[in-house]
Specification:
This protein is of the alpha/beta class. It contains 18 helices and 14 strands. Helix 8 packs across helix 10 and helix 11 crosses helix 12. The longest helix has 17 residues. It comes from Clostridium carnis.
């Protein structure tokens, strides 16, 4: 991915896991055809990130204006929770007309023939970066609508007041941690009650300590050439979780994201390893919160900021209503007012051409800097090498058990090794 060139376009304006248990919009009528003005109900499975709940209402409203004959029947679940199970269920019973997940879902499911190629009419309205990880054998199976960034969010005012420079190495980071503790400041905000958060930050660590240097580590793992138990790099990745656990709130394992983010804004912690989904909370609490972002420092001091394609629309290869499905894709890729509304609400970066969100993002200056320095990497690489469903999410549970003292470190590593057959296959 030519990330510097591409992201220069995405990022020069404004930039800008997983829960949510239901969403609205009930259908009014259903037809056996998607042609003409006949009323059609399309079923939508939406695996949502924490930023996304509510965008379904925005889409419904825009769709009703241009295509009033089309209604969407939404089933919204957390992408990091029930989405994969729902996918397995529907693969047995028949897929919904539209599936909304993440870019990595294309690599996991498209080879099984359940998605239809997205017409170039709609993909041509997206930035080049949108097709990089959703194209297989020259065919694009996902429409990537927005993007997130992941790294360490930090309180810029607190850093300035204490004379802290953005850390590039583990030594740099540890100096800030020690100074925080000496001054009675909690170094890291974290909400380890959310296992998905542990899984997410673990992949962040793995991207910069492992995959940026060895992009085929997962393939080697499946061949038996490397393992979690014998890899000092992977052991370091797991131990970074302990570094955060030892330097965060005492109640992190009973703390949820909203309260954690509120404490960060309130000045109770200096940093948070997170992603753009936290921006929504930060700015809802205090629209003037002065935050920045930097990559979590790796052992070699060359970490990159992480870029993640997020909302990705896929369509069923077996839908009976292809014309209606295409009309939904048309709305999503042509209605720029809708796009700005969604980007401003989710506080995410656009993947549509010529669309600029209007929300204020203090961390944008940092993102632009890393983009200019070619220091941004697409996390889809790591997520394709070690899949979330059945592997990363299960590893996170063992990391949690280790931190709580219910497993040994060696047990957590061995448990990851025992799941090797699931590491590259979402099934």
């Amino acid at each position: 991915m030519k990330i510097k060139k591409i992201l220069g376009v995405i990022l020069t304006s404004v930039m800008m896991v997983s829960m949510i248990a239901g969403c609205g919009s009930s259908p009014e009528a259903e037809s056996s055809s998607g042609q003409g003005d006949e009323k059609v109900t399309l079923k939508v499975l939406a695996g949502q990130s924490t930023t996304d709940a509510g965008i379904e209402d925005m889409i419904d409203e825009a769709l009703a204006k241009k295509y009033p004959n089309i209604k969407l029947e939404w089933e919204c679940v957390g992408w990091g929770g029930d989405f994969q199970a729902k996918m397995q269920q529907y693969m047995q019973t028949g897929m919904p007309d539209i599936i909304i997940g993440k870019a990595q879902d294309v690599g996991a499911y498209a080879p099984q023939g359940i998605f239809k190629e997205i017409d170039s009419t709609y993909t041509d309205r997206l930035l080049d970066a949108a097709s990089d990880n959703v194209t297989i054998d020259g065919k694009t199976y996902g429409l990537v609508y927005n993007a997130l960034y992941q790294g360490v969010y930090y309180n810029k005012d607190m850093f300035k007041e204490n004379g802290w420079e953005v850390p590039k190495t583990q030594d740099d980071l540890n100096k800030i941690i020690e100074d925080c503790k000496a001054k009675g400041i909690v170094p890291f905000a974290s909400h380890m009650a959310d296992t998905w958060s542990i899984g997410n930050v673990t992949m962040q660590f793995a991207m910069n300590d492992i995959f940026n240097k060895n992009p085929n580590w997962g393939d080697q793992f499946r061949k038996g050439e490397v393992s979690f138990t014998n890899s000092t790099e992977m052991q370091d990745v797991y131990k970074y979780n302990k570094l955060i656990y030892d330097n965060t709130f005492d109640d992190t394992f009973s703390l949820e994201q909203t309260e954690c983010d509120a404490r960060m804004v309130d000045g109770q912690a200096a940093m948070k390893v997170s992603g753009s989904w936290s921006i929504q909370n930060f700015l809802d609490i205090d629209e003037d919160f002065n935050m920045g972002i930097f990559p979590f420092p790796n052992k070699t001091g060359d970490s990159k900021l992480i870029f993640e394609p997020n909302i990705t629309i896929m369509t069923s290869a077996e839908t009976k209503y292809q014309d209606a499905v295409n009309n939904v894709l048309d709305i999503l890729t042509s209605d720029k007012d809708l796009a700005v509304e969604i980007y401003d609400f989710t506080k995410t970066a656009p993947m549509l051409k010529d669309v600029t969100p209007t929300f204020k993002n203090p961390s944008q200056v940092d993102i632009d800097k890393y983009a200019e320095e070619n220091m941004i990497v697409d996390v889809t690489l790591g997520n394709n090498q070690l899949v979330w469903n059945g592997f990363q999410e299960e590893n996170a549970k063992d990391i949690s058990a280790w931190l709580l003292g219910d497993e040994t470190f060696e047990d957590a590593l061995a448990a990851s090794d025992s799941r090797v057959e699931r590491s590259g296959d979402s099934n």
